[in-house]
Amino acid sequence: MFDIGEYCAEDRGAIRDNSHEAIDFELVSDISDLVAGEAGSLYLNDRYRNKGALVEIMYPADSHASLYSHMLSPERLRFLLSLYPRKIDLQRLSRIVIRPRYIEAGEIELAALYIKSSRTLVLYLTSSGFGSGIFAGDPEFVSASLEKITLSKIITDSVDSGRDGAAIPALWNIISVIDTEGEGGVEKFFIRRPDAAERIIAALCEISEHYTGLGY
After folding, report:
1. Is 56 within 8 Å of 47 (Cβ atoms)?
2. Tally of domains in the chain
3. What is the CA 98 to chain-centroid distance, rounded?
4. If both were cysteines, with which of 94, 115, 196, 216 could 127 make a disulfide (CB 3.0 to 4.6 Å apart)?
């Protein structure tokens, strides 16, 4: 498995610094390089446009057979954005990056990262599939709770709306609570890993290792 500290120490040949500031710096630098085009042909671009909102969607050019069984595809992203009820909130986003990496520590998974300076939302692999739609019952629409811990946000696959058992998709939840003006330059969103089957965790690690080997 990949934990956040191991991710930040990869291929850098330096003594690991596990401080929150160092981890944030490494994560943001990684994405900033990607957005600046240093990833070359590793990523393709799509767009979602609606009135005042224009969201670029960056996704891997390499199509691993199981990737979109475990995270949102560009098509599903556009679908969820099109149904988001408060379109003005979408102006908080300049781009969404589909990042095919699995990062966890202590059964807490990094689900998403929001970089305020570039208004970039990065989505990572999670054991729940983040509402990819392939799991029985689609965990995206199972009610759960939201809470804040320090400067990060703990989420699950959806939040109970309180009406007839309906639930809010996790992507909507993240967009609705993004703080573009608050302290710090980055917000991290975590998911408590459920009792995921070993085969799912193994699949996530295999996908992540596949993309790591290709330079993602």
Report:
1. yes
2. 1
3. 7
4. 196
- Residue 63, number of CB atoms within 10 A of its CB: 9
Closest-CA residue to 144 (of 104, 111, 118): 111
- For residues 5-10, average pLDDT: 48
- Check if the beta carbon of residue 126 is closer than 8 Å to that of residue 108: no
Closest to 77 (Cα-Cα) out of 104, 59, 63: 59
Q: For 94-123, write each residue's pLDDT tens digit.
A: 999 999 999 888 778 888 999 998 999 999
The H or E element containing residue 176 is helix 170-177
Beta-bridged to residue 108, according to DSSP, are 105, 192
Per DSSP, what are the bridge partners of residue 186? Answer: 115
Contact 21, 36 (CB under 8 A): no
Q: Is 161 helix (H, G, I), strand (E, B) or coil?
A: coil
Q: What is the pLDDT of residues 10-62, one digit of tens each?
A: 544 444 555 567 667 777 888 888 888 766 789 999 999 987 889 999 999 99
Separation CA 216–CA 23 (nearest Å):
18
* Cβ-proximal residues to 113 (8 Å cutoff; 6+ apart), any chain: 27, 28, 31, 121, 122, 124, 186, 187, 188, 189
The domain containing residue 160 runs over which residues?
4-213
* CB of 140 closer than 8 Å to CB of 170: yes
48 φ/ψ angles, rounded to the nearest 5 degrees: -120, 130
